[in-house]
Specification:
The chain is α/β, with parallel strands linked by helices. 27% of the residues lie in helices and 23% in strands. The protein has a domain at 75-243: 3-Layer(aba) Sandwich (Dihydrofolate Reductase, subunit A). It is globular and about 55 Å long.
């Protein structure tokens, strides 16, 4: 893995952040946050596809999955849309030696909970998200969700949060997460949720892995939904080069 940006102090581009500590430096959240900080993580093909054969794994690589795991380890909570959670087979995150070390050093909870966004509460109470987990899962839903469905999710052990009338109002949902002490928010999509976060103008960072594949077809891009009122300017924070052809980019919103 090679560092491309920021250019290393040696003015060379062959620095290799191979040690855990060095790679962690690229993905640390800001310290002492007083508001929710939303970091979105995606992998995309060269021509903008967010999935291959119905999932993102065909676009990924061991290095990309290593960074995904690192971002999870550094986050207070993992945010994901219900459709993506179902398509990708999400379940509660596991304890690992690296995860325990990273989180202990930063004073974080043992394992980050997963917060699922679903305006209708459409999660199976028997889903591994609820039944195979260490941390209490969070369901972010709306007043439109059927009462019996909310009751079933609560009975299954979820922390059900109503944030919005007809759909999930994301700024309210983020405030509810912060009220629980969950400020470092690692969002893993899908495209609809990312698009809604853009429309709400609450995205602070985008970690984008560019996979060296051309896929064509009608697969969704990484963000879909309503057009943002004003495009959000972002700046490149870091760029890593891995596996001879894969780019790992991190962008942050410009200071206002």
């Amino acid at each position: 893995m090679q560092q491309l940006w920021p250019v290393p102090e040696t003015k060379q581009v062959d620095s290799e952040p191979e040690t855990a500590d060095e790679l962690e430096r690229f993905y640390e959240y800001p310290s002492e946050l007083s508001r929710p900080w939303v970091r979105v993580n995606f992998v995309s093909s060269l021509d903008g596809a967010a999935a291959v054969n119905g999932g993102s794994r065909g676009l990924s690589s061991p290095v990309d999955r290593r960074v995904l795991s690192l971002i999870r380890d550094l986050s207070d909570v993992v945010l994901v849309g219900a459709g993506t959670a179902a398509a990708e087979g999400y379940r509660g995150l596991r304890r690992t030696e690296a995860r325990t070390r990273r989180r202990t050093e930063r004073g974080l909870g043992e394992v980050p909970p997963i917060a699922v966004v679903t305006g209708s509460g459409s999660i199976d109470p028997a889903s591994p998200l609820l039944t195979d987990t260490v941390a209490t899962p969070i369901v972010l839903t709306s007043e439109a969700a059927p009462v019996e469905r909310v009751a079933a999710l609560t009975e299954a052990g979820a922390d059900v949060v109503t944030a919005g009338r007809n759909d999930v109002h994301l700024p309210t949902a983020l405030r509810e997460l912060a009220r629980r002490g969950l400020y470092r928010i690692g969002c893993e999509g899908g495209p609809g949720l990312f698009g809604a976060l853009i429309a709400a103008d609450v995205v602070d960072e985008l970690c984008l892995t560019v996979s060296p594949l051309l896929t064509s077809g009608d697969t969704s891009r990484i963000a879909t939904g309503p057009v943002a009122g004003t495009p959000r300017d972002m700046r490149l924070l870091s760029a890593l080069y891995a596996d001879e052809s894969m780019l790992l980019l991190r962008y942050g919103r410009l200071a206002e």
